[in-house]
Each structure stands twice: as structure tokens, then as C-alpha cells.
Design brief:
This protein is an alpha+beta fold. The protein is built from four helices and 15 strands.
Length: 241
């Protein structure tokens, strides 16, 4: 849970598409900035874009156009006013958008794990997208041929399939496990309970996003481009098919 008020459903089941909830708070009395008692809408963070969808009450539909975290709360921005605190609502996720981002996110984990295994490079940034995604690494030298090889290695692993599971460990345990965190900046400083995502025997690292159940669902990675972003900062772009 992100706070004591909201049950975070997307961490329990990333395939949940519809659910019932209650409006429990507005942010700064703004009726278009609402807090739910439970949500499966993913807020912008960790390089993963926010979810979209709708909230309905008494046949009136409110579009969810943005979801973000603010002071530990998951805030849902809707397109017009009218909802009241205490309203019982039905929520529907834009599943097509979410599922594309789930596939992209899991693909990024597989690819970054392989690059880390082959080069020991850590991740310095990333941004997932519906049509293409990118990952930045602290890599001294690279070339397109090398990156093509890493993409092919990722596709070979994906074709074999592999279950994805998640569990939580203490920060102390996470910090004691060498090479668990593949982010150059390390673990987020304020989090004491660390969610660990495990992809078969391919990868295991801290993560708070949404993912597919089996890496076969990713499909196939397609190399797009590489860029040199400065000293030891290399960027790779990819998409899925």
C-alpha cells in the first residue's frame, strides 16, 4: 500500500481491469483530483507512464486522464466535476494501454538484465512508451552490433518463456544482496519494504511497476537505435512486435 487509506490493487493483480471503490478524499478541495479507497490505476513513476480509464457513478462517466503520486497518495485526475466524497463508483482500466506498458516494462527488465550480465553496466535512466521505450546505461563502450546481439539474446530468453513472481523483503536484506539493485542511483531512500520482481532465472531486482505473468507475453523485441548521451551514458531504443 502507498498509504494507510488506499489499497493498491495493481500490486496484487496487474491483470485486474474493473473494480468497485469509494471516493474518500479530494486534493486541496479540487473535485477533479480524487483519492479512492482502492485502486488499480498505476500512477506515473519509475519510467512507467500512468494508467488511464474511467470512473462511473449512476451511469455518469468520468474519464481518468492522469494518475500521480502526491505526498504518498495516489491521485486520480478526472475530466470534470460532480463526484462527491463517499460516492460508490465503478472503475474501468484502459486495458489496451496498460497491457502494452506491462509488456514493455517486462521487456525492459529482460534486456537490462542481459546487458548487466554481459557488461556489468547499471541503469541510469529509462522511459517506457506505447510505441517505443528506452534504457540508459553507464557503459564505457558500445556499438550497434553489440546491442543487436543483446536484443537477440533477450528474444531467445523470451521465446523459452518464464514465470514472473513478486515478493517483499526488508531494506536491510535488499542492501545485503550484492547485484540485486541494477540502478546506478541505488534503492529509493525512503522505502523500507522492498518489492522484488523475479523473472525465472533471468533477473531479480526491486520494482514497483506492473508486469506480465510470463515473459512469452512480451512477444519480440525490435532494435530501433542507440545514442551516446555523454560520458559513460549510452541509450538504447527498442519496440515490440
Amino acid at each position: 500500500m502507498t498509504n494507510t487509506q488506499t489499497q493498491v490493487l495493481y500490486l496484487e493483480d496487474s491483470y485486474l481491469k474493473e473494480w468497485d471503490a469509494e471516493i474518500i478524499e479530494f486534493i486541496e478541495n479540487n473535485e477533479k483530483q480524487v483519492i479512492l479507497d482502492k485502486t488499480a490505476f498505476y500512477p506515473l513513476g519509475g519510467g512507467q507512464p500512468n494508467d488511464e480509464g474511467s470512473i462511473t457513478i449512476n451511469s455518469e462517466k468520468y474519464k481518468v486522464i492522469n494518475v500521480k503520486k502526491s505526498d504518498g497518495k495516489i491521485v486520480h485526475e478526472i475530466d470534470h466535476e460532480g463526484i462527491k466524497i463517499g460516492d460508490k463508483v465503478h472503475c474501468i482500466l484502459d486495458w489496451e494501454r496498460r497491457y502494452k506498458l506491462m509488456r514493455m516494462h517486462t521487456a525492459a527488465h529482460v534486456l537490462s538484465a542481459i546487458i548487466n550480465q554481459q557488461t556489468q553496466a547499471l541503469i541510469t535512466g529509462n522511459q517506457l512508451g506505447l510505441d517505443k521505450s528506452r534504457i540508459d546505461f553507464d557503459l564505457e563502450k558500445f556499438d550497434k552490433g553489440q546491442m543487436h546481439t543483446f536484443i537477440e539474446m533477450a528474444n531467445q530468453a523470451i521465446a523459452k518463456g518464464g514465470e514472473i513472481t513478486a515478493h517483499t523483503i526488508s531494506r536491510q536484506e535488499a542492501e545485503s544482496r550484492e547485484n540485486l539493485c541494477k540502478l546506478a542511483k541505488g534503492l529509493p531512500p525512503a522505502i523500507q519494504e522492498i518489492r522484488i520482481l523475479k523473472i525465472k532465472d533471468i533477473d531479480e531486482q526491486p520494482d514497483g511497476g506492473t508486469h506480465v505473468k510470463d515473459i512469452k507475453e512480451i512477444g519480440k523485441l525490435v532494435f530501433l537505435d542507440v545514442e551516446n548521451k555523454g560520458a559513460k551514458r549510452r541509450r538504447i531504443y527498442f519496440t515490440l512486435e
